Amino acid sequence: MVLAIGLGIGFLMTIVTVGYSMGKNPFPERNDVLFAVQLDAGNPDNPPDNPDNIATQLTYLDAMALMESRQAKRQSASAQSYVVIVPQDPDISSYQASVRAVFTDFFAMFNVPFEYGAPWDHQADGNADQVVVLSHATNDRLFGGRNSVGLTLSFGNDEYVVVGVLKPWRPVPRVYDLTGGSPFDSVRDVFMPFNTMVDHNYERRGSVSCWKPLPTNDYQGFLFSECTWIQFWVELSNSEEKAKYLEFLNNYATDQKKVGRFGRPVNNHLRNIEEWLDYHRVVDEGVQVLTVIAALFLGVCLINTIALMLAKFLARTKDLAVRRALGASKFTLFAQHLLESGFIGVIGGLAGILFAWLGLLGIRALFDDPDIVYLTSLDVTMLATAIAIAALSTMVAGIYPAVRACNVQPVAFLKV
Fold it and tell me: If both were cysteines, with which of 102, 143, 293, 334 could 106 make a disulfide (CB 3.0 to 4.6 Å apart)?
């Protein structure tokens, strides 16, 4: 029985752990105050293929208009780019580095931890200063992990000053950046002011969607086009601020309709972190199918366990008859058998944790990807869940055998 429960729980928890890690909110403490902004400004004749046919990104025109409004407590447009880093150390070769262009509020909004220095200030945002914040891995690669604040590095012919270095930080999934690459990738190598990226015309990465021809075939034409490529997050302290900001978005959309933009009905959204993850379907459908299969397999294991328990409990009928004759109630006997079922479930759950651990190791070996470790780690929540599922499911499975055993008629056995 322990082996049957252990195999069922092990298979189920292997798949559930991967799905849980994929869809887990990396910022639960910020879920009720951080919101992704969606403006329904797309093609009125051919809306995007999203759950509600609304674009997930903003145009440069709209993102800058929202930034200038300062309607939120904190706010940040962000986009993905890349640069070629030319290290000062001649022993380190130049290489292409990924960039996340943000406004300084981004770091406080997502509780980004700093090992050295701090984010740039609002003035640097406005002036498009050539300053950067380095990821922990980039600082290790370029400066050997030492405090590099105040040092410079080159992006081609441009010199940038390091103002901060992050601690090891890897939100999984990377909820603020779901449009470029896997949502389970590591953080970008470099963070720089958004306006600095725009002023230097660094090439953009990630999703870009244009539903109208560019007004001019140059960089300025791209910036002032109807191309969506910018993610936008706001921090709102309570429901009143959220309602007020949504009203502001609706008024903004109405004004844009008056000048010939926004051909669709006003239908804007603010989605918190969990809603944003669900909206983007971060958990792969294949994992959901496997979860159902694993649950069915656990059901088969439980059916096998019911048969074994029934045989085990009915083998005690003579003992149960004597106890009934001495005054034990049916409820007392039922509770005893149910407690035994739960104990078997707990032991099976512990065995299931071992099988799940082996299954997760197998997934890591199968994919041979260092990033997969972040999706295949058993945490305390998953350990407790495994034991709880095993105990509860086994107790439920033990109800029928316990009822059968407790309904024994003492007279039939006391004669023997």
Answer: 102
